[in-house]
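Internal tracking record. Fields below are filled automatically when a chain is submitted to the structure queue. Please do not edit lines marked as system-generated. If the sequence contains nonstandard residues, flag them in the REMARKS field before resubmitting.
Queue: standard
Priority: normal
Entity type: single polypeptide chain
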Amino acid sequence: MAPVRDGFGTPPPEGPRDLLDAADDAVALVSASGKVIGWTRGAETLLGRTSAQVVGRPAANLLAMPGDPVRVARIAERCRAGMGWSGRVALWRDGDPLEVGLRVSGSFHVGEDECFLISAREERQQWTMGQSVLDGFLTRSPVGMAVMDLELRYVWLNDTLERFGGVPREQRLGRRLSELLPGLQGETLEGVMRKVLTTGVPVTDYEYMGWSWADPHRQHAYSTSFFPLVDVGNSVTGLCYMVMDVTERWNARQLLSLVSEAGTGIGSTLDVMRTAQELADFAVPRFADFVIVDLLEPVLSGEGQGAWLPDAGPAPARPVMRRAGMSSVRPGCPEAVAQIGDKVDFVPPPHDANLLVDGESIFIPVLDPSDPLWITEQPARVASIREFGLHSLISVPMRARNTVLGLATFTRSLNPTSFQQDDVLLARELVARAALCVDNARRYTREHTAAVTLQRSLLPHALTGGTALEVVSHYLPADASDGVGGDWFDVIPLSGGRVGLVVGDVVGHGIAAAATMGRLRTAVQTLADMDLPPDELLAHLDDLVLRLSEEPTTGQTADQTVTAFLGATCLYAVYDPVTQRCTLARAGHPPPVVVTPDRHVSFPELPAGPPLGLGGMAFEATEIELPENSVFGLYTDGLVEGTDRDIERGMSRLGYLLCSPDSDLESLCADVVRRLVPAPQPDDVALLLARTHALGPGQVASWDVPLDPAAVGDIRAGAMRQVEAWNCPELVMTTELIVSKLVTNAIRYASGPVRLRLLRDARLTCEVADGSSTAPRLRHARSTDEGGRGLFLVAQISHRWGVRYTHGGKIIWAEQEIP
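SYSTEM-GENERATED OUTPUT FOLLOWS
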């Protein structure tokens, strides 16, 4: 429409002024005779005149310059024709002219009086706006406008409001909103209107969702402002309201709200299946009526990086997936053709598995169960579509960190509204958040499995104390979900039927502490195999920790490497079932607990010793007696610290619990840990319990050997008779050879006294003790040598052999397996 130039003033300037911002306009109602019959609060604010000063008086008094009667008549004719008029005029405000943009609506009747709705807005911009933008603002403005009488009946409305409601103007005039659009919350809106008429206070930006005849299949969001019309006596004579369609803004806000809510509702745990189910539960019924989440098998098993990566080439025709989650508005998910955990290969036709690699969403606004592709490829699902009325579908591939995870599918049935293009964006956002959580859970599962595997490989798989000890253990990391800690223990078989028991504690938790623990455990096993006494073993272990602490590590500073291995404690004990005595030494570790058969509890006083890695300080060993059937316990401080951090009190409770008459050592161990460890658990816990047994006189035979080569024969014969008495005829010849070689070497190369001892335990052990500390040497004699083959032959025919040193010399021993 061309700019209107036949008005009171010049056309309004062209520019980007926001025409939707009409809430603060000055609005007046003027009769055909030119008198003001309605005056709003906005008009009072703009011109500084109350309704009492204006209503009932000529509108021409408000003009700063008198209008041309011919032009006024022309404008009136134009407005009676329903075209409206707009232009710029000068009005009086506080005695000074004020330039405003004036708009006049098409004429309408209030009762029998012909009226015009006039709105004015102060012109502040310095730029110009074309008249074509402002012409017909009241009738064709993007803001819907209407005038209601005191009975809330329509008196006038513009084209925009007519388009919003989908009801022709002639059907609206004289009728109420609730009569025309019952789905538009008519009664609620009329309640707001009555409040404005009663109080005279405007209501602005009132938002609500509504339905209209213009778009009966979709709800819209509207923002409405209500203003009272006031007469000369300051009485409300009617009401004007303006409405805007803010559906897009409403949807965007709802989208952000739903996505934000999804951030807290999806991914509450590091469990892949649980996360998939949370996605399905969250989307139903907020977004869809039936949701399924299918994940690739490698994702569920925690293996690898997923089935394939996008750059790994074409995907297989049918991916191997499993149903990981599903939810429905119908109890029991009757729409599903597969259950949780079942193998599935569903990809909406005509797509294949490359859909997962490409990452593009599938949007089917209207599902057609008669589609030949669906009937051919998915007959079971076609039957479900027909039975339950599934009519709209969105499928979104689940991908995170360039890894394909699976496919999520959303459908609607009871909700009659089909998915829209904007819904695809929401579905993709929900799936993206869930995919990241699934990938985090998958990575955690894989890393947790690796950590637990590492921990299990570092701890002993099975504990055995032979016939000397009955042993059980209980290990409980501080973080039960990780299953990885720095506490450790071990049971090491030694020569002569003896058993080594060790328990240690590395400060900290997790992989680093577990790796340190593994190195210390390996070192203890190596040193124990050398038959070192407990104090010497801890001294060597301390030296090893010092060297490890000085090793530079990639990415660490010099200060960090010095403290890398500090904070480890250890206790090592050796139990001899022949003497029923136990030799112990500790490095900053809590003392052991001993419960005798008469239920007497004690904590042997051992020299504390410094923690491992300090260096420069000696370790001392102590020997104690353990009567047969005594319970001997080694533990870490996490067991006895408790929540009050009082170790002595915790040790007392430990001793009390170990006095239980329960003869089952394994049940006793588990019960002690359960009753002593608080929740939440502050530290790793390790408990090693052993019940002692003794080798009776019938299992040990010994001979003092004279330093005379002629005595070897008698000693050998006595050993053969003893082996036969023990019912081991298969070992007579090998025992004869071992005794002969070891005794002969002791007489020939060592000093007295020499003593032979045979032990029949899990194995048959031959020990020869002498007074020399010279280490024997295993060598391979040449073919021309007449001797030098003794130890070589012993090593060949025995299960294992070795040497251990005593205060008075050494013992060379050899073990044989008993058939």
